Structure formats: structure tokens, C-alpha cells
Automatic annotation (TrEMBL):
InterPro entries: Homeodomain-like_sf (IPR009057), HTH_RpiR (IPR000281), RpiR-like (IPR047640), RpiR-like_SIS (IPR035472), SIS_dom (IPR001347), SIS_dom_sf (IPR046348), WH-like_DNA-bd_sf (IPR036388). This is RpiR family transcriptional regulator. Keywords: DNA-binding, Transcription, Transcription regulation. Residues 14-90 form the HTH rpiR-type domain. It comes from Mesorhizobium ventifaucium.
Length: 301
């Protein structure tokens, strides 16, 4: 696993992120691969050799050099110097507990490392740059006519959680709909969607074709797309009007859904604050109705 996936400090996407995103569409295919690596692994740019980075990115070392010149730098070492300086100025959030410090207790060590990594990932969502993304996305959600949630496979539960929470902010003619298979209403739910409606699309690499195509078609219909994804140059980010960048990197064998779930809950809290709906009262009424139907368990008397 690249070292850039191990810590989540204030470095965000690095000192050249804005320039890389701006020029991404006009880059040749191999330069795009290299640029995405630099965007997604800023710590690796500072800490690894150019050849190591090229190997991790799956391109030649000459491609990394061409990327630096494409950005107006003399060579790749100039890029590394910029990222190294940014890293030195950063108070990185590294996992606090390591196996060597736990007396050989591998189970405790693994639990600690995974927990610390998740905590750092979720905490980074509140940093200034990320907070601005959330505020802009929540403003779009708060002004929406109808809301839709879209996610496939492992991201389906994230979209479902979004729809469940946002349903408490629905009222009048406003609807909140889960799009897709399983418990969703199917893709036909978006047939009448258009300007004023908003679709939250969740997807990370490797991207589900259905999610990308539905998000793209929704945007063509005038629907505002908010993306929760893993890169500012992901296919969803390039479709979306507003984008929330999270990571699915994990200290274990699986992709972590915790940051994406946290992002949904932050979005919901900000949207509720901007809405005229009394969300707390809506939740109370819903729980009372569910209790009346006997949904909740009660201890025997």
C-alpha cells in the first residue's frame, strides 16, 4: 500500500492540486494517469522517489518528468520539493498506536490502527477546504425541489442512508427517492426529474458503470448532481455540480465505507440547518408513529 494512504493530514490534495485539476482534461492519457496519482497520493510525492511513484502509478518515469514540465516546472524534483515543503508544514494525523508498542498483541494493534485511521479520515472531513465543499453541497440540497440518492453495490447502503435521513426534511410536494435496484425505485424514478431536482451519487474506484451513466444522464436533464467520490478528477466529480472528496482506503483488506457514511450525515446536518423544516420535530413524530405500530421492542412487564 502506498505511504500516501497511511496518513490524513492537512495536506489535502497537495500544493499543485488546483493546477492539476484545471489542466486534467487537456492532458494526454498517460499524463492523466500520472496526474491522478499525484492528486490522490500527495504524501507519496513528497516521500517516494520518482521511479517508485511511476511504478505505483503504472506509468514510466519519463511520464512523471513530462507531467512536471506540463505544469511549468523544470523537472520532477521541483515538484517533489514543493510537496516535501507542504508536508513539513503539515501537522499530519498519523495512527497513534503501532504494533510494536502493544507488547506483541497483534489483535489489539490491528484494532487500534484501523480505528485510528478511520478517526483521522472522518476528522479530515471537517478541515477548512472540505467544510467549504460540504457547505456548497448542502446549499444545493436545501434549495432542491426533489432529492434522489444513487449508489451501486457497496455504495448502495450509503445512498440508502442519505435517503433515509433526508426523508425527515421532506414535506409538501418534495420527495426523497432511492434510485436503483434492490430496495430502490429503479432508474425510471428519474424520468421526470429536471431543473430544481438534486441527485446525490456515491461512487469510488473502480467506478460502477451504472452510477456514472445515470449521473451523466441526470445532469443532461438539468438535475443538479452532488457527488461523494474519491478524487477531484473521478468521472463523478467531472459530472457533478458539487463534489465531496472522501477516501475508501483501509488498513485492512476491504474498502472503508465509514468516511462516506460520515459525509452523508454531515451533509444532512448542514442541509437541515439551512432548511425551514423542523427536522427534530419530524424525527420525533416519525418515532411516535413507529412506536404506535409496535415497531420497537419493549421489555415484558
Amino acid at each position: 500500500m502506498p505511504s500516501g494512504e497511511m496518513g490524513y493530514g492537512r495536506m489535502e490534495q497537495g500544493p499543485l492540486a488546483e493546477l492539476l485539476v484545471e489542466r486534467f482534461e487537456n492532458m494526454p492519457p498517460q499524463l492523466r494517469v500520472a496526474a491522478r496519482f499525484v492528486l490522490d497520493h500527495p504524501k507519496d510525492v513528497a516521500l517516494m522517489s520518482m521511479r517508485e511513484q511511476a511504478h505505483q502509478a503504472g506509468v514510466s518515469h519519463s511520464t512523471m518528468m513530462r507531467l512536471a514540465r506540463w505544469l511549468g516546472l523544470e523537472g520532477y524534483e521541483d515538484m517533489r520539493s514543493l510537496y516535501a515543503r507542504a508536508l513539513r508544514d503539515t501537522v499530519a494525523s498519523e495512527p497513534a498506536r503501532r504494533g510494536a508498542d502493544q507488547g506483541g498483541d497483534a489483535g489489539y494493534s490491528t484494532a487500534g490502527v484501523v480505528a485510528d485511521t478511520l478517526a483521522a479520515q472522518v476528522s479530515s472531513l471537517g478541515e477548512y477546504g472540505n467544510a467549504l465543499q460540504f457547505i456548497a453541497a448542502a446549499d444545493l440540497l436545501a434549495r432542491s425541489r426533489n432529492l434522489f440518492g444513487l449508489g451501486s453495490r457497496s455504495f448502495y447502503p450509503v445512498a440508502n442512508h442519505f435517503v433515509h435521513i433526508m426523508s425527515f426534511l421532506a414535506g409538501g410536494d418534495r420527495k426523497v427517492t432511492l434510485v436503483g435496484e434492490m430496495g430502490g425505485h429503479g432508474l425510471d424514478a428519474l424520468q421526470g426529474a429536471g431543473r430544481g431536482d438534486v441527485l446525490l451519487a456515491v461512487g469510488m474506484s473502480p467506478y460502477e458503470r451504472t452510477t456514472i451513466e445515470v449521473a451523466r444522464q441526470s445532469a443532461r436533464q438539468g438535475v443538479g448532481v452532488v457527488a461523494i467520490t474519491d478524487s477531484s478528477v473521478s468521472p463523478l466529480a467531472r459530472i457533478a455540480r458539487e463534489t465531496i472528496i472522501v477516501t475508501a482506503n483501509s488498513q485492512s483488506f476491504f474498502r472503508s465505507m465509514a468516511p462516506a457514511f460520515a459525509a452523508v450525515e454531515i451533509l444532512a446536518a448542514l442541509t437541515a440547518a439551512q432548511s425551514e423544516v423542523n427536522a427534530v420535530e419530524r424525527v420525533r413524530q416519525s418515532e411516535e408513529q413507529l412506536a404506535a405500530f409496535g415497531i420497537y421492542w419493549k421489555p415484558p412487564r
